[in-house]
Design brief:
19 helices, alpha+beta, Endonuclease, Chain A, Arc Repressor Mutant, subunit A, ten-stranded antiparallel beta sheet
C-alpha cells in the first residue's frame, strides 16, 4: 500500500472531478475533509511453524505408518535403524510431545497428526509470539498498517462529526487473521504461507496506546444529479484508497435531508425553467452513442477552473458581455481585468454590469468603490461612445455571465468580488453553450437592465437619458419590445441637446437601427440646424445607404416644410 504522504489531501478535489467526469452535469454541493483518531496498537500473533523432517524422523514415521505391532517397539526401531537408545529416545519423546505418535499398551503408533506430518514432510516446531505493530480506529473497529501524524495537515482540524470519544475501558476486538496478515505483509513480515505451512493459530488482545497523535483521513463529497434529481454522498478513504460504503450509508441517513434542502433553496433562487432546460440538454448529451466525440453543452466548473474560464470568456467577447455579481471589489476588478474590458471596448463591444443583493440600494452593506465605478464608466469604444454600463439591480442572488450569445455561466461564484485564490472547495458554476438556453438567458438578463432604466426615467438627468439611449441600442431585446421606450427618450432629449451631441447620437442610431418613429423628425431638425455641412452630408449619405425608406421620408418631410 502507498503511504498517505504520496496522496496529498487535495486529492479529494481530484476524486470529485473524476465523479463529475463519469456523470456529465453532476453538481458538487460540498466537499469536506476530516479525520478519525487512530491509536498506536500492537498484537502478539502465534503462528504455526514447521521444518523439514530429517532422515531419522522420516524413518520412524514410515515404520509406524505400516501399523505393524512389532515396529512399535522401541528396541525394534533401534535395531532396524542400528542406532543406540541415546540417539533414538530424544526423537521419540519430541514426537510424543507433539502428538505425532502415541503409546498404546506399551507400543508406539502413528497418530492422524503424525500421518499428515509424514505425508507433507514437515515437522511442527515450538512457536513464539510475533509482535505486529498496527493502528486502531475505535469508531469503525478497523486496523491499519499505517497512519500519519495529525500535525502533517494542520488545516484539517475537524473530526468525524458522528464519532464518539474512545472508551479505553472497552476491550477492543482483535483483528482478524486476514487483517493482521495483510498488515504484517505491508511491513515485510510473512505470517502465513502455504508453502512453508505457516498459519496463524491465535491473536492476543490488542494493546492500545492511551492517547492518539495520528489519524485516518477521509474526503466527503456531496453530489446532486439534476437528471435523476438525486442527492448522494461519496466518501473516499485515503488509507484503503477506495470508497467507504459504510460511512457513505451513515452520512446519507444522517445528512441527506440537509443537502436536499440546499438544492431546493438553490432551486428557489435560480430559475426553475432554466434548470429544467439544462436537465433536458444533459439527458440528450448523456444519451449520445459516440462517447468519444460527445457534445458537451453543459459543464460543471469547480475550483480554480471557474476563474480561469471567466477570464477566458472576457478575452473571447466580441460584441457583448453581461455580468451579474452581487458585489464589486477593486481588489478583483484590478488593472488586469480593466485592461481586458478595455480590449472589448476597442472592438466596439459593450459590457453590462449588474450588482446588488439587498432589496433597497441604501441597505447595501458593501458598496462598490466610487473611483472604480467612475473608471469603468469612463471607458469608451473606438467611436467615443460609452462601452460599460453599470446598474444596481438589487435583490438578485444569482451570479451570472453571458458572453455574446454563445455561452452562459450560472453558479455560486462572485465574479467581481472574489479572485478564487482561496477556499474554493464548495464553489461551482454551470457553463452552458446550448444556443437556445443561452439566448433565453440573454433575454432575461437584458430585461433586468431595461427594467432598471424604466424604473429611473422620472428622476433621470438629461445626460442619463442620453446614455440610456446608447445603452438600449446595444440591447438586442429592445429592438423587439422597447422601441416605444427608445422613442420616448429621444423625444425628451433631442431639443435639449447641443447640435454636436445630437449629431453623434443620431449617427449612432442610424448605424445600429433606424426604425424609431421620432428619428425622421430629429434628422430633419439636424438638416435644418447643423452648421457643419460636411458632417450633415456624411450622415445623410449613411441614412440613404442603410435606410433608403427613411431617407425618402426625410426628403418628403423637408419638401413639405418648404
Amino acid at each position: 500500500m502507498l503511504w498517505l504522504e504520496e496522496y496529498p489531501i487535495q486529492k479529494t478535489d481530484k476524486i470529485a472531478e473524476k465523479i463529475q467526469s463519469e456523470m456529465p452535469g453532476l453538481e458538487i454541493l460540498e466537499i469536506k475533509e476530516w479525520f478519525l483518531p487512530v491509536y498506536d496498537s500492537s498484537v502478539d500473533v502465534y503462528v504455526s511453524q514447521f521444518r523439514k523432517l530429517n532422515i531419522i524422523e522420516e524413518f520412524i514415521l514410515r515404520l509406524l505408518e505400516k501399523n505393524i505391532k512389532e515396529f512399535g517397539n522401541e528396541e525394534t526401531i533401534q535395531e532396524i535403524l542400528q542406532l543406540d537408545a541415546m540417539f533414538i529416545s530424544p526423537y521419540l519423546n519430541d514426537m510424543l510431545a507433539k502428538q505425532l505418535i502415541d503409546r498404546e499398551q506399551g507400543y508406539l503408533k502413528l497418530t492422524e497428526k503424525g500421518g499428515k506430518a509424514h505425508k507433507e514432510g514437515l515437522l511442527p516446531i515450538n512457536t513464539l509470539p510475533e509482535t505486529v505493530n498496527c493502528f486502531y480506529d475505535p469508531y469503525f473497529k478497523s486496523y491499519y498498517d499505517y497512519a500519519i501524524p495529525l500535525s502533517t495537515y494542520p488545516t484539517i482540524t475537524e473530526q468525524f462529526r458522528y464519532s464518539k470519544e474512545y472508551d479505553h475501558h472497552e476491550v477492543p476486538i482483535a483483528p482478524t487473521p486476514k487483517e493482521i496478515s495483510d498488515i504484517a505483509s505491508e511491513q515485510g513480515k510473512v505470517l502465513e504461507t502455504q508453502e512453508l505451512g505457516r498459519k496463524i493459530l491465535s491473536i492476543s488482545s490488542p494493546v492500545i496506546a492511551p492517547d492518539y497523535n495520528k489519524a485516518a483521513f477521509y474526503g466527503e463529497i456531496w453530489c446532486f444529479d439534476p437528471v435523476d434529481q438525486q442527492v448522494f454522498c461519496r466518501v473516499w478513504n485515503f488509507q484503503t484508497q477506495s470508497y467507504s460504503n459504510e460511512i457513505q450509508q451513515i452520512l446519507t441517513e444522517e445528512d441527506r435531508d440537509k443537502y436536499l434542502k440546499m438544492v431546493i433553496t438553490k432551486e428557489e433562487v435560480e430559475r426553475k425553467t432554466y434548470k429544467e432546460n439544462v436537465k433536458k440538454v444533459l439527458v440528450q448529451n448523456r444519451n449520445q452513442t459516440d462517447k468519444n466525440n460527445m457534445k458537451k453543452e453543459v459543464e460543471i466548473l469547480r475550483g480554480h477552473k471557474i476563474r480561469e474560464e471567466f477570464l477566458n470568456a472576457i478575452d473571447s467577447t466580441n460584441k457583448k458581455l453581461i455580468i451579474i455579481s452581487p458585489w464589486i471589489s477593486d481588489k478583483v476588478v484590478d488593472n488586469e481585468m480593466i485592461n481586458k474590458l478595455k480590449r472589448i471596448a476597442k472592438k466596439n463591444g459593450v459590457i453590462y454590469i449588474g450588482w446588488g443583493i439587498a432589496k433597497e440600494r441604501d441597505k447595501e452593506d458593501r458598496l462598490p468603490p466610487q473611483h472604480l465605478i467612475d473608471t469603468l464608466k469612463g471607458i469608451k469604444n473606438s467611436k467615443g461612445q460609452p462601452a460599460i454600463y453599470i446598474h444596481w439591480i438589487g435583490n438578485h442572488h444569482n451570479k451570472e455571465v453571458v458572453v455574446d450569445d454563445y455561452v452562459h455561466f450560472l453558479g455560486s461564484f462572485n465574479w467581481l468580488s472574489y479572485r478564487g485564490d482561496y477556499s474554493l472547495r464548495n464553489e461551482s458554476v454551470t457553463k452552458v453553450s446550448n444556443k437556445e438556453i443561452v439566448q433565453e438567458e440573454l433575454t432575461n438578463l437584458e430585461n433586468l437592465f431595461i427594467n432598471r432604466i424604466k424604473s429611473r426615467l422620472s428622476i433621470m438627468s438629461l445626460e442619463e437619458k442620453v446614455l440610456s439611449i446608447y445603452e438600449l441600442m446595444f440591447l438586442s431585446t429592445y429592438k423587439e419590445t422597447e422601441v416605444g421606450l427608445m422613442d420616448s427618450l429621444l423625444k425628451e432629449t433631442f431639443l435639449e441637446m447641443n447640435d454636436e451631441n445630437l449629431y453623434q447620437l443620431c449617427s449612432f442610431i442610424v448605424e445600429e437601427n433606424g426604425e424609431i418613429p421620432t428619428l425622421p423628425i430629429v434628422l430633419s431638425y439636424l438638416n435644418s440646424n447643423l452648421k457643419d455641412e460636411k458632417k450633415l452630408k456624411k450622415l445623410m449619405k449613411r441614412v440613404k445607404k442603410l435606410h433608403p425608406d427613411l431617407h425618402g421620408n426625410i426628403s418628403n418631410w423637408i419638401n413639405e416644410k418648404r
